[in-house]
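Hey, I'm writing a tutorial for new members on how sequence and structure tokens pair up, and I'd like a real worked example in the thread rather than a made-up one. If someone can provide the structure for the chain below, I'll link this post from the tutorial.
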Amino acid sequence: MDNLKGKKKIGEELAALLAAACMTALTGTAAWAETETAGPQITVRSEAVAEARVQELPLPEDTCIRQGREYQLKSYQQIAVSLPEIVKNVQKTVLYEGVEAAAEIPEFLEEDLQDEESGRSASVRLPLQSTVKSNGRWAEGFTFPVTVWGYDAGSFVLGGETVPVAETHPFAGHEEALLELIGVDPVSYRIDSAEWSGEPETGEDGLVYRRAEASGRKYLSDVEAVYGGEAVIPAQPGIAYEAVYVLKEEETEEPQTVAEETEQPVEMTAAPVPAAAAPEEEEPEEPESAPVFLLRLRQVTTVVVGAGILLIPALYFLIRRKRRRNRD
């Protein structure tokens, strides 16, 4: 009985371990989800991945445990599913170096958004949220062309103002007016020199024009721009595994029933044998059906043979007695 209880306990532990292993396989990285309640047949489905990552999907396990019952894999197939959109809050910082005051920081940033968990990606457009300037400094390289009109009789017109002609630095004293004409801030730009770049020319309108070039410095800064907001990776087609499991046939063992059935012939054949001659029955250590049957068969054989040996003298005596009567 102790051995029987021990084996039953070992069997229960093995079943529990098998159930735990199956649940780990169904709920681990593959994220298998049951789509039907436990019955004669169940269907489970793996997590869905993008079509390009289908090779990363693990195949379903051969067996699984549900509510203490073991199921066998019957079939599985790939199915097409729709991967839902992914919404994420994203923030991206970009450093623009050497930016002059007149330059515009981009209002939007095109970014390749990657979702590490699913491996999906999409190109998103992030709006500008804030900017911070630093490392301000003056730099050479600020130049721009200038064309004046009304160049006649020793003067020209600059922004509605008549300016005397000068062969060297023709815009001296009018630098800020010239900067305003080109649309830049005099605080961030400076004109250090200017010179004529051509001779006077008469235009189609009959006015006399002359070209010049001004040069100076510009104020530069490094700009740290922060882009961000809610970004969306749109829904897209995907692939998943769908597996069908069927309930295994339960194998039942009835060692006690076999023992009871094999004991009946012993009771029927043991009647003619004296109680002392009957061998004592020994309980088998293991309640397995085949050894019990062989043991009972051996006991029956022993009883029959023993009874036959006891009957031989009696038969001999009866035959001899009959012969004597025939002689008389």
